[in-house]
Design goal:
Elements (H helix, E strand, L loop, with lengths): L1 H30 L1 H5 L8 E2 L2 E2 L4 E3 L5 E6 L2 E4 L3 H6 L1 H4 L10 H4 L1 H5 L1 E2 L3 E2 L6 E4 L3 H11 L4 E7 L5 E7 L24 H4 L9 H11 L7 E4 L2 E3 L5 E3 L5 E4 H6 L3 H22 L7 E2 L3 E2 L13 H8 L9 H12 L10 E5 L5 E4 L11 H19 L9 E10 L2 E11 L6 E7 L5 H20 L1
Parallel strand pairs: 3-8
Antiparallel strand pairs: 1-2, 3-4, 4-5, 6-7, 8-17, 9-10, 9-21, 11-14, 12-13, 15-16, 17-18, 19-20, 20-21
């Protein structure tokens, strides 16, 4: 009798363990169904680890960037469009990190937890990007590595993103992993890059000065080509500017004046301004793609010289292009703005929304007075120093940067925006190891903005 009882108890125990395992498996299947369904081994979506079943991706004008036909993933017929949008669309083999075909795979495959993957109809992912403008912007980057992006600062819609180097997935270079010109080719430099900003960061130092130095507008600064600090370090300027005002110092990008201002402000106020500009945090674009967080070059242990160089955008300061574009959008929009995004929605075969982007506040909150002051100074920089003729018939506010690099050509920066209410677009351009900011990044940014202007008008 005792033996039978023991066997019954053992069977009950085994049955309980079995039911527990089944329950755990069911729970895992439900909570991780999306991941399981979209695994590369799933023959409904992949064949030999290559994506074969996904919906359409179209640009803002309805031009198809990618589609599926007879189990084959097909991309736009234009090689220039395929190349310029590679880092946004992603490839079908998973080399490109953060591409839409990876990050929005469930929406593109039509997956739902109730019905699984629907192979009878497909969803359509709608971009805010203009594919032709992206291809044009990519050409402006050549032959340099870097990125250009344009955003509607009122809505947050990105209309252009280009990052170089890239390649045509239909004609991938055989030497892509050995040729240095393809270094970093799988990275989207717009939200995945960190750069020494050079003089574009003077906008942040100027913002801190506006908010913390009461007589900054009546101050003058004497630039004799260099400035020796209290610790014996030296700040070298790009020219000998003589006696200049605060606004003139920004116009002419005077290192001496801005180093003086930076030292007076101190690292604490400068770091606070860097943070207020949203440059020290990772931003999220299109719900799930994150940018890199930047870092300011000076801290509590920094020397006076390090603080001075950090205030002019050198030292170890690093900035992400997406974050700086967002900062420009905030200045242009009165001190606040939404996070830029490039996916507007995903719709099913019936035209109903499967996914729709919601406006997300960027977290940047500059006073409207400060934003207005910076806008006027950036406008003055273009009209009084760079020359409006460089931007055609556009009314541009902006700042260049020529970020010095040890034993290398400088990174060229331009960041700015249109002051025209009917053309509310901000731009950022970074051309690595190219040279002067105005000559290289300024020209590229101007060409893209003028191309956009002709498109929308």
């Amino acid at each position: 009798m005792k033996t039978i009882t023991k066997r019954i108890l053992l069977l009950v125990a085994v049955a309980c363990i079995f039911l527990a395992v089944v329950a755990l498996l069911m729970f895992s299947m439900l909570t991780n169904a999306n991941e399981y369904a979209l695994k590369s081994v799933n023959k409904h979506i992949y064949d030999s680890n290559i994506l074969t079943n996904a919906g359409d991706i179209v640009d803002v004008n309805g031009k198809v960037m990618a589609t599926t036909s007879d189990g084959e993933r097909i991309y736009n017929e234009s090689s220039s469009i395929r190349t310029s949008l590679l880092h946004i669309i992603g490839d079908d083999k998973g080399f490109i990190s953060g591409g839409i075909q990876d990050t929005f795979s469930s929406e593109l495959s039509g997956y739902s937890i109730l019905y699984g993957i629907n192979r009878e109809s497909s969803n359509t992912l709608n971009l805010t990007l203009d594919a032709d403008l992206c291809a044009y912007a990519y050409e402006q980057l050549k032959p340099y590595k870097g990125t250009i992006a344009v955003c509607n600062y009122k809505t947050g819609e990105l209309v252009c993103i280009a990052t170089s180097p890239s390649y045509d997935m239909y004609n991938k270079p055989s030497d892509i992993d050995t040729n240095e010109k393809y270094d970093g080719v799988y990275i989207n430099r717009f939200y995945g890059g960190l750069y020494t900003p050079g003089s574009v960061l003077k906008v942040v130092t100027a913002m801190s000065a506006v908010e913390n130095i009461s007589d900054i507008y009546t101050r003058t600064f004497k630039c004799e080509g260099s400035y020796t600090l209290s610790d014996g370090g030296k700040i070298v300027c790009n020219d000998t500017h003589g006696t200049i005002s605060f606004e003139q110092a920004l116009n002419r990008s005077c290192n001496v004046a801005f180093a003086m201002i930076a030292v007076e402000l101190g690292e604490e106020k400068l770091n606070a301004a860097f943070s207020a500009a949203g440059l020290d945090k990772s931003h999220t674009t299109s719900d799930r793609i994150r940018s890199y967080a930047g870092s300011f070059g000076a801290n509590a242990e920094s020397s006076v010289t390090d603080i001075g160089w950090s205030g002019v955008g050198q030292s170890t300061t690093l900035v992400n292009p997406y974050a700086f574009l967002t900062y420009m959008c905030a200045i242009a929009n009165g001190g606040v703005c939404n996070e830029p995004y490039f996916i507007s929605s995903v719709t099913n075969a019936d035209g109903k929304y499967v996914y729709r982007t919601k406006a997300v506040d960027s977290g940047i909150n500059i006073s409207s007075t400060t934003a207005s002051t910076l806008k006027a100074m950036l406008r003055s920089t273009v009209s009084n120093y760079y020359g409006d003729y460089r931007f055609g018939n556009l009314t541009i506010c902006g700042k260049t940067g020529t970020a010095e690099r040890d034993n290398e050509k400088p990174h060229a920066w331009f960041a700015g925006f249109s002051a025209d209410e009917e053309f509310p677009y901000a731009v950022v351009a970074v051309l690595e190891n190219s040279g002067n900011g105005l000559t290289y990044a300024g020209t590229a940014a101007s060409n893209v903005l003028q191309k956009l202007y002709k498109t929308v008008n």
